[in-house]
Amino acid sequence: MITGKNYIGNQLSANGSKTFKTFNPVSNTENEQVYSEASVEEIHEAVALASQAFAEFRSISGERKAAFLNAIADEILALDTELIQTYCSETGLPEGRAMGERGRTVFQLRTFADLVAEGDWVEATIDTAIPDRTPMPKPDVRKLLIPLGPVVVFGASNFPLAYSTAGGDTAAALAAGCPVIVKSHPMHAGTGELVASAIVKAAEKTGMPNGVFSNLNSSGIEVGVELVKHPGVKAVGFTGSIRGGRALLDLAAQREEPIPVFAEMGSINPVVILPEAIQNRGEALAKTYAGSITLGTGQFCTNPGLILGIKSDELTEFTQNLGKDILEIQPSVMLHPNIVGAYEANKSKALSQSDVTIVADYESDVQSNYARQVITTVEGKTFLENPTLHQEVFGPFSLVVQCEDATQLETIIKGLEGQLTGTLIAENSEANEYQDVIAALQNRVGRLIYNGVPTGVEVCPSMVHGGPYPASTDSRFTAVGVSSIKRWARPFSYQDWPNDLLPSELKNENPLNITRTLNGALSKETI
Amino acid sequence: MITGKNYIGNQLSANGSKTFKTFNPVSNTENEQVYSEASVEEIHEAVALASQAFAEFRSISGERKAAFLNAIADEILALDTELIQTYCSETGLPEGRAMGERGRTVFQLRTFADLVAEGDWVEATIDTAIPDRTPMPKPDVRKLLIPLGPVVVFGASNFPLAYSTAGGDTAAALAAGCPVIVKSHPMHAGTGELVASAIVKAAEKTGMPNGVFSNLNSSGIEVGVELVKHPGVKAVGFTGSIRGGRALLDLAAQREEPIPVFAEMGSINPVVILPEAIQNRGEALAKTYAGSITLGTGQFCTNPGLILGIKSDELTEFTQNLGKDILEIQPSVMLHPNIVGAYEANKSKALSQSDVTIVADYESDVQSNYARQVITTVEGKTFLENPTLHQEVFGPFSLVVQCEDATQLETIIKGLEGQLTGTLIAENSEANEYQDVIAALQNRVGRLIYNGVPTGVEVCPSMVHGGPYPASTDSRFTAVGVSSIKRWARPFSYQDWPNDLLPSELKNENPLNITRTLNGALSKETI
Questions:
Q1: A145: distance to nearest CA of chain B, Å?
Q2: Of A55, A258, A463, the CB nearest to B473
Q3: Has B264 been annotated as catalytic?
Q4: d(CA A469, nearest CA chain B) in Å
């Protein structure tokens, strides 16, 4: 049952005076439930509890953390239709999507549970002593990853489950041993509270310290700002706009103790279509991309907002087909009137730039909060000269750039800001000729896709969901996959430490039977 | 032969109008050689060359990078006495130290050469496709670490070789595939130029692209500021003061494209001595610590500047012994008059604080630029209330804090800023009673040492030389050991990429025979 209150640790709390409601974009009405924004006192209490909880939580076993994470997954599933209905009522997204995203969220939690139960993730590294080394004895040094401390997670508007309350950032932080304080996304505060209740229930059932998790409601920026500035907070995870992520990064950098911010932000996900491919498969590609651009009403961070090709009749034909195909797709609802407003504003800005040709613009009437898809095209020169055209238009929008030649294509790619993904559409026979283009693209993105679409982010150890700024604030980390735990952990060394005082991961007996780097070689051996 | 010029890529260059000299603190005179500070044009040219070089350097094989790194080591050794003499003349450090540091530098270069020749460091991770998975086929995704781009390295005053021109930051960055631009430390510009000449020679001999390395002279902050703000620079490595490191961190954070700064900065390296240990071994400990505090004239970042004990007759006796022992050590020369000046100023500031007792102060006359060692002591309460006493006094200085009890000891540790190291001096029988103290200490440091001294940083895979801010600007990385390469690399994914276009590390055949994570398990198998 949704109460509209915050979770300050395991306690429901609503001491603040500010309230707000969520919005159903399908019915175009506010939802009934009133949410209480966290007060400054509640924020401070949540951080104080998290700091206290950290003292215990950071050294509990991987097995117990796994039980906690699996219990969260179980409790989320137990929320059943209430969760799915709330999700749909706060996002306009269909039930199938809600269930798919719930599946992904549960899968992520269980994947991290497996990771910490197994224990290899701490990268245990042991160099044993050489007491008779000259001129100096070699000490015994042993290293492992340990958690940073309380982490603040900002939920994403477009993924109320997988990138929000119990999403990837939270799952990874809890797995690392960091307490989490979620700044709940105001657009889906109900979904957030339900998931928070599942986490709190799981924490209680598995005996986690009070404060290991808190969920704070907020309608504006104040709660987030207060959290990021709080000395008790040691790291920040964010998924959202460049403006939002950068603001948090700047706040964190200005602290007396700067802290890491991993923000996964905007991206236009360039797609490079090579000549032979467009010649052979232009028609099919247009269909595929019309689908990818409008998938989830274009509200994916990996949405293909930029298509780069080399001028040819086939590219012209592809562009026209893309326009035709996209107009055949029924418009769908966006997450919130504010998202629609931003889409319309950004689209208008893009369309009003000089020398932009509109290929397709869904002009028929649509229901409130539905997005009209648009395809535009420009010459390479125009794109190069106008940075406004490089900006993301969050929604079902894409721009086809007609480059003069491969050199201009490469120049354009080199001038792009950092991106989550880059896609190469090519025949195998021609890809080799474009090595410079591919190298340039690699240097601007976190993931390269061959003959596919960028939408769809597989949750697996080899996935990188991140990339050079502004795709993320730190390209050395990923937001998806088990490696994302490294955002919230730091290496730590023990020198000549007595075996019985060492953590299990580093003890001579290797009681957890984990794989360690022992004197330079991977091994499960005892010492 | 030292020319006083900058290396802009492989070319010697001296277009600027600003010049400076280095200083011999032993003879208390300027050295003769005049150095030309890099001009803005030279800075921009170095970055442009580095960016060009990156396009080639980032994809050369590990084997070729290894040859380059080993050639640097060879060329440094070939500099022979000229290097050692220049080093001594610019630092006042003895020949033995110069040779030891050269050995360490060469060892680091060869260690990174081995690392990249072997190739496992890229953390290759492969998840193969499951085309018939429902509801969606699983793509083939493969990940490896790739270099960030040109890195600027700021040399350290106190380690002209191991943490400067071809030191750990440079070796790690080159190993990762990042071109390096060194902002040479003005106090040892000659040593820097010699080492730079070795790197350039090695680059030419092994066919590295021009611009893979540049060495820029500077006497003030301008060159460094210009470099860190330059859009072509993608990361920064720094070893030095908190003020300097923080200024660079702030500059990097304010860029349009923020970039990672790994700065290893100040630390007072708390040493906790437990009661039984001081009772049993107080006298010997005093001798050991008098040596550690004055080692290298106290000019180590791991110098023990803070000793924490619980009030007792034995602690009083230890403190007196420490004072007595340290006065028996002959004062030694510091690196530079500016370092002496800072030491004297910081020492005076510490000594002038209320309720600080001077235990030992070397009052006899000393030669110019020699440092007079000092031991002070305060009550726990005084230390808790006065943050000035928490500040580093870079030099042969230490403060013994007499805590009321274990609770106050823990409170003091919890209130410390981040540190590179923490040391526990204990009998095995008593350590277990102080688990809370140990946990608190672990939370503030990057490395814990048992019954040893913090000075001496073993170069090995399990070493962490870093720690919570301000010990470093990002506790998730280390400055020493092969893992330090991770500061300069980012994960990158290929999705459904054709085998013949993949880098060797990810090809089906595993031609480099590296260990990879294949569908979740470590393996050298082919696919």
A1: 9
A2: A258
A3: yes
A4: 6
| Chain B residues lying within 8 Å of A477, measured CB to CB | 491
Two structure tokens written together for A97: 């999507």
b/e for A245-255, b at 16 or more Cβ within 10 A?
Answer: bbbbbebbbee
Chain B: give the shortest CA distance to residue A502, in Å: 11
When CB atoms are compared, the residue of A431, A439, A489 closest to B498 is A431
- Under an 8 A CB cutoff, do B495 and A448 touch? yes
Q: Where are the domains of chain B?
A: 6-265+477-487, 270-450
**Helix, strand, or coil here: B496?**
coil
pLDDT tens, residue order, chain B (527 aa): 899 999 999 999 999 999 999 999 999 999 999 999 999 999 999 999 999 999 999 999 999 999 999 999 999 999 999 999 999 999 999 999 999 999 999 999 999 999 999 999 999 999 999 999 988 999 999 999 999 999 999 999 999 999 999 999 999 999 999 999 999 999 999 999 999 999 999 999 999 999 999 999 999 999 999 999 999 999 999 999 999 999 999 999 999 999 999 999 989 999 999 999 999 999 999 999 999 999 999 999 999 999 999 999 999 999 999 999 999 999 999 999 999 999 999 999 999 999 999 999 998 899 999 999 999 999 999 999 999 999 999 999 999 999 999 999 999 999 999 999 999 999 999 999 999 999 999 999 999 999 999 998 999 999 999 999 999 999 999 999 999 999 999 999 999 999 999 999 999 999 999 999 999 999 999 99
Q: Topology of domain B6-265+477-487, per CATH?
A: Aldehyde Dehydrogenase; Chain A, domain 1 (3.40.605)
CATH architecture of B270-450: 3-Layer(aba) Sandwich (3.40)
Residue A130 carries which side chain, given as an amino acid letter?
I
What ipTM was assigned to the predicted interfaces of this complex?
Answer: 0.97
| Choice among A37, A75, A90, A264 that is catalytic | A264
**Cα–Cα separations (whole angstroms), residue B361 to B117, B351, B400:** 52, 10, 14
**Cα separation, B325 vs B323, whole angstroms:** 6
d(Cα A144, Cα A151) in Å, to the nearest integer? 20
